[in-house]
């Protein structure tokens, strides 16, 4: 036989049987000329590219895909590609949102509050400032200043106290602030007992008892048969009152006197003969024979001679019954129970009154004869002007202390019950719960005005005005409003004529002009400018401190201050014309105003304490906090928000790849696997970890830049890519499963199936029926 030698066509190779041919896999030689991946399909080499790359026109080379070219990389505004990664950026005035894709307009109020001191509103991308209630914008439209409501529109009934951003109304002693926060009404006296209403019918003292009020009298008086009125005790009836010679009874007291040849001793009871007849004064007959020297309880006055007569007694020889300047007063003019002295030269006042005619009640804090004794009551107590007894103006007296009873709106035991809703001010009786009306109102619902001559809470008080001389009685306070020409507590004193108001001055009625006028008939206008008042007689101006001149129109010269500019400033360069205090500009102190405020102090006279945090610098003039880098807020108490750093947090961080930004310096703190000033670079080949500082250990193969895990090439696997793929796996890291059938061999690099004899197809799934000859 002749031997047959088989050969194959170009692109095929002869198998071991020397008969059959298989197509040669071009991918096994120089990767089939492919740049990235060579795939043997349909008997041809097909080149493909790794993810993020695309095949060039030559069908072999690969190039990176620009991710920004397709739908702008998913960015809403700007897209930048760095090493194939998309980085989204925003236009000026915008910033990136948390998704890293979209942009949002920057709120101008987020940076230093838009320069506003109080409230910042973003309008059309610009900051617009406004102020909290009680403040208004300054001319610079950024800063705010306090509104002084007290000088503009507070409407407080009594006292207005301005506060920063607001104001508070308060009332004078004895008054209570209404629920509207502005009006004042007199504190209602709770009607707790019978004695609270008209003193229980008692003339002097009233004591509460289960059977009703029990009346009693002050010392020097005794209860009459009606058990309500008090009558005078005649002390002279019992052992002549202890007097050596003569005893004189008075209402509520008595006094001793001596014959003209005798003088009263210091004990005000015993008499001793005069040693010097010259003490008798003027010739006998000019004055009554008996020298009367008053004696009263709790008041001891040294004995005086006739030549030491008080100023209101005539030393020129007034007729008995006349006294005072030019003998104009007489005994018939003594007021308030006052009566003529035995010598007919003065009025002897009842306890609780004073003045030439006994027409002046004791001022609060004084009592007794001629109001010479001082009360010793607590601040919350009132003083009886007759005997000096202390008593409570309202509430109950317990252990010498005044209690105000239940708080407003409550009553009953333990103050646990609520006042009826019908009470307009929710103020009711602390025991019984009936409405206590505001002064000037009455009725079960306090819906009626006082009628007749009544006033006060529930209209329980009777006005004591002399109605012929009175215009009206105030229904709230009971104050008598006198007709022109009359004055006094009850309008009981008249002035000459009826052209103007009048008042008591040193016990004498004088004309009172309206503010801004003076003269006998108050018809001459005052010419004062910066004055406390104008003298109603002469028109002389009483200047405010810091002003001088006839019209108070000249400021104190530099270096002088106070009333009439008579006081000299001390060592200050500048001092207040009003009180002489040194005036330095904010932030300075000392007599020369050259010393800066000490640390943590600022403002006028360095009175304010700084409130800055985190090592911020406090401006010694205005207390403004100058924050250290990385902090913000009015007190530098806040760190910069995410994405911002530096002075006042005004610099935008430039870090990429989710790196953190140091709020102080702006330095980028990269995530593992990245490096560069902005963390814009991935680790170089062979490096991984934080700041790409660790070396890969993969026997020359690439590793994961974050964790350092080895990235094996096609056909290799293991921690260091030291092993080949098992029979059923292929590709990079042996990550793909082979699809070969019928015991075909799987190429570990490409996954191509090398079919056994008689089988063909991509998976060796087709049986060959025709033999190659």
TrEMBL record:
Pfam families (UniProt xref): EGF_CA (PF07645), EGF_laminin (PF00053), FXa_inhibition (PF14670)
Keyword Transmembrane helix: yes
SMART domains attached to this UniProt entry: EGF, EGF_CA, EGF_Lam
Protein name: Multiple epidermal growth factor-like domains protein 6 isoform X4
Chief site of localization: membrane
Disulfide pattern: 150-160, 349-358, 627-636, 670-679
GO terms, molecular function: calcium ion binding; scavenger receptor activity
Transmembrane region(s): none
Limits of the EGF-like domain: 146-180, 328-359, 607-637, 645-680
InterPro entries registered for this protein in UniProt: EGF, EGF-like_Ca-bd_dom, EGF-type_Asp/Asn_hydroxyl_site, EGF_Ca-bd_CS, Growth_fac_rcpt_cys_sf, LE_dom, MEGF10/SREC1/2-like, NOTCH1_EGF-like
Domain of life: Eukaryota
Localization annotation: Membrane
GO BP annotations, alphabetical order: endocytosis
């Amino acid at each position: 036989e002749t031997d047959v030698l088989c050969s194959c066509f170009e692109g095929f190779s002869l198998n071991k049987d020397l008969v059959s041919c298989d197509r040669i896999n071009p991918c096994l030689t120089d990767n089939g000329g492919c740049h990235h991946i060579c795939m043997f399909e349909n008997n041809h080499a097909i080149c493909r590219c790794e993810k993020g790359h695309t095949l060039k026109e030559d069908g072999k080379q690969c190039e990176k895909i620009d991710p920004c070219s397709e739908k702008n990389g998913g960015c809403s505004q700007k897209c930048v590609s760095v090493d194939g990664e998309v980085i989204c950026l925003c236009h000026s005035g915008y910033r990136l949102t948390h998704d890293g894709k979209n942009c949002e307009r920057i709120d101008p109020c987020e940076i230093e509050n838009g320069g506003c001191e109080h409230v910042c509103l973003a309008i059309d991308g610009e900051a617009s400032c406004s102020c909290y209630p009680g403040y208004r914008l300054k001319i610079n439209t950024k800063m705010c200043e306090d509104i002084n409501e007290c000088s503009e529109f507070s409407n407080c009934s009594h006292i207005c106290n301005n506060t920063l951003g607001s104001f508070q109304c308060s009332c004078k002693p004895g008054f209570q602030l209404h629920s509207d926060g502005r009006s004042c009404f007199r504190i209602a006296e709770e009607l707790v007992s019978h004695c609270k209403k008209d003193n229980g019918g008692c003339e002097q003292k009233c004591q509460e008892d289960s059977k009703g009020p029990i009346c009693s009298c002050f010392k020097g008086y005794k209860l009459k048969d009606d058990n309500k009125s008090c009558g005078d005790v005649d002390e002279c009836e019992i052992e002549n009152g202890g007097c050596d010679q003569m005893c004189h009874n008075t209402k509520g007291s008595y006094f001793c006197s001596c014959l003209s040849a005798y003088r009263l001793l210091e004990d005000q009871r015993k008499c001793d003969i005069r040693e010097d007849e010259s003490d008798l004064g003027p010739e006998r007959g000019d004055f009554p024979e008996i020298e009367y020297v008053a004696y009263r309880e709790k008041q001891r006055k040294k004995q005086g001679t006739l030549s030491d007569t008080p100023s209101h007694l005539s030393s020129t020889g007034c007729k008995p019954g006349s006294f005072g300047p030019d003998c104009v007063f007489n005994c018939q003019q003594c007021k308030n129970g006052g009566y003529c002295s035995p010598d007919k030269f003065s009025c002897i006042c009842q306890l609780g009154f004073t003045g030439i005619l006994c027409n002046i009640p004791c001022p609060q804090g004084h009592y007794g004869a001629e109001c010479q004794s001082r009360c010793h009551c607590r601040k919350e107590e009132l003083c009886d002007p007759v005997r000096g007894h202390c008593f409570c103006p309202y509430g109950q007296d317990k252990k010498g202390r005044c209690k105000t009873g239940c708080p407003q709106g409550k009553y009953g035991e333990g103050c646990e019950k609520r006042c009826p809703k019908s009470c307009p001010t929710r103020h009711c009786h602390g025991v019984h719960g009936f409405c206590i009306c505001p002064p000037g109102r009455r009725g079960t619902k306090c819906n009626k005005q006082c009628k007749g001559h009544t006033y006060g809470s529930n209209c329980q008080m009777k006005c004591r005005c002399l109605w012929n001389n009175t215009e009206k009685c105030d229904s709230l306070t009971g104050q008598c409003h006198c007709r022109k020409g009359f004055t006094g507590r009850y309008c009981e004193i008249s002035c000459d004529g009826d052209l103007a108001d009048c008042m008591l001055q040193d016990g004498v009625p004088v004309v009172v002009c309206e503010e801004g006028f003076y003269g006998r008939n108050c018809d001459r206008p005052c010419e004062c400018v910066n004055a406390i008042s104008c003298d109603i007689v002469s028109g002389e101006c009483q200047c405010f401190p810091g002003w001088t001149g006839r019209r108070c129109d000249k400021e104190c010269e530099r270096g002088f201050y106070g009333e009439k500019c008579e006081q000299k400033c001390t060592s200050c360069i500048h001092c207040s014309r009003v009180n002489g205090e040194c005036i330095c500009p904010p932030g300075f102190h000392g007599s020369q105003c050259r010393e800066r405020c000490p640390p943590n102090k600022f403002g006028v006279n360095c009175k304010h304490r700084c409130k800055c945090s985190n090592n911020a610098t406090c401006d010694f003039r205005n207390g403004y906090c100058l924050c250290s880098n990385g902090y913000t807020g009015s007190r530098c108490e806040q760190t910069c928000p995410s994405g911002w750093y530096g002075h006042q947090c005004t610099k935008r961080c430039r870090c990429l790849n989710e790196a953190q930004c140091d709020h102080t310096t702006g330095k980028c703190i990269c995530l593992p696997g990245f490096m560069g000033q902005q963390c814009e670079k991935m680790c170089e080949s062979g490096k991984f970890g934080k700041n790409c500082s660790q070396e890969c250990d993969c026997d020359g193969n690439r590793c994961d830049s974050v964790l350092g895990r080895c990235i094996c090439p096609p056909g290799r696997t293991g921690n260091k890519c030291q092993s080949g793929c098992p029979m059923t796996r292929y590709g990079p890291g042996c990550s793909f499963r082979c699809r070969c059938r019928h015991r075909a061999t799987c190429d570990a690099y490409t996954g191509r199936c090398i079919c056994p004899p008689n089988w063909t197809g991509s998976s060796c799934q087709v049986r060959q029926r025709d033999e190659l000859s």
